[in-house]
Design goal:
Layout: H1 2-8, H2 11-30, H3 41-51, H4 65-80, E1 87-88, H5 92-109, H6 113-121, H7 127-146, E2 155-156, H8 165-179, H9 206-223, H10 227-236, H11 241-260, H12 277-294, H13 298-306, H14 310-328, H15 342-359
Antiparallel strand pairs: 1-2
Length: 363
């Protein structure tokens, strides 16, 4: 086990993890997950918000086991490798706000950084603008980091139980998923909401999705896999360690899509995507900036929350609440284009993030 732990911390280890995720995501799509969305942290958290009734967009409601597995897998990995360290207290409400706007930006584009790469690997040319926006948003964030931006020092929690809240919440959601399955032909169980059509109704078998989520949670926790961190380190420190994993993720996803017949190049009529390129760019600019200011992409935030990081759990909670806000107030996009209030929300989010970047500085 010690050798496995050390291997995943190396460049070869991060490449291995990227290859594994890059293969598993298209396979999940082939087994039933939405097209070009084998794994999308933002979209899956949005579906969880819908399953809980935080929004009533009937086509995106499902308690995604992959997300639950991410947190629980990271938690089990942290325990096994003695890296479970309950901590928090670093500007939690600012992190919550960043999580809300990160989700709004992601839903204007229709995808998180993982799905940006998966859309490209599936042939969706619109994702090029999303990727450019993500990189630009991260670059802006690095300017704030160089100028002294900080949310303050994270404090060690007084009790090890303090880091259990978010993993236990995910465990509770998993139990709900098992005891409250979707009644045949109905959109609601006893407590949870379920989609009858649309992306929320498209999902791989529950057990397979959960196992994949747990496996990725373990591997990503050990390797520190993070898409935002990959571009941040490349731009800020000229270090390519994390980026090598992200590159492997994209290459593996592209090859897997080609093998499975899931590569369909073009811009028009791509699945769960729109062609309003300015807002594809600006939506991911907002998301990339928020991820950088919060210190991790949405996947990394889930993995850190499994390690006991309450600040990461607050950010993840902000994203789930942000999904409810986005769909309840007409901010989220659809294949027809951005929502009626999506443009205004994106501009407001950019302004808020810039203000946070300018004002949250070390004295």
């Amino acid at each position: 086990m010690e050798g496995f732990k050390n291997f995943l911390a190396t460049r070869g280890g991060i490449i291995f993890v990227g290859l594994v995720i890059g293969v598993l995501a298209p396979v999940l799509q082939n087994l039933g997950n939405p097209p070009n969305m084998g794994i999308c942290v933002a979209c899956m958290e949005r579906d969880i918000a819908g399953s809980l009734g935080l929004h009533r967009a009937a086509v995106v409601q499902y308690m995604r086991p992959e997300i639950l597995g991410f947190v629980l897998g990271a938690f089990l990995s942290a325990l096994a490798f003695k890296e479970y360290r309950p901590r928090g207290g670093s500007a939690p409400f600012i992190r919550f706000i960043l999580g809300v706007f990160a989700m709004i930006g992601a839903l204007v584009f229709l995808g998180c950084p993982w799905r940006t790469l998966l859309r490209l690997a599936g042939g969706d040319g619109n994702a090029i603008f999303g990727l450019l926006g993500l990189i630009f948003g991260i670059w802006v964030g690095t300017r704030f980091l160089k100028a002294g931006y900080s949310l303050g020092r994270t404090q060690t929690a007084p009790s090890k139980a303090a880091g259990l809240a978010f993993p236990l919440l995910m465990l509770g959601f998993l139990i709900l998923l098992f005891i409250d399955p979707q009644p045949e032909g109905e959109g609601r169980g006893m407590l949870l909401f379920y989609s009858l059509k649309g992306p929320g109704a498209q999902h791989a078998p529950l057990f397979i999705s959960l196992v994949v989520g747990l496996l990725i949670g373990v591997l990503a926790q050990r390797s520190r896999f993070c898409t935002m961190g990959a571009f941040r380190d490349l731009l800020l420190f000229k270090q390519g360690h994390l980026f090598s994993g992200v590159a492997a993720f994209f290459i593996a996803a592209l090859i897997t899509n080609l093998i499975l017949g899931q590569f369909h190049p073009g811009f028009e009529k791509q699945p769960i995507a729109h062609t309003m390129q300015l807002w594809n760019f600006l939506g991911m600019t907002l998301a990339g900036l928020a991820f950088t200011l919060a210190g991790g992409c949405p996947g990394r935030q889930l993995f850190m929350s499994g390690e006991g990081d309450a600040d990461a759990a607050v950010f993840a909670s902000g994203m789930i609440v942000g999904a409810g806000i986005a769909h309840n107030f007409g901010l989220a996009s659809s294949p027809a284009g951005i929502g009626p209030n999506g443009a205004v929300a994106t501009i407001i989010g950019l302004i808020v993030c810039v203000i946070i970047g300018l004002t949250m500085r070390r004295r």
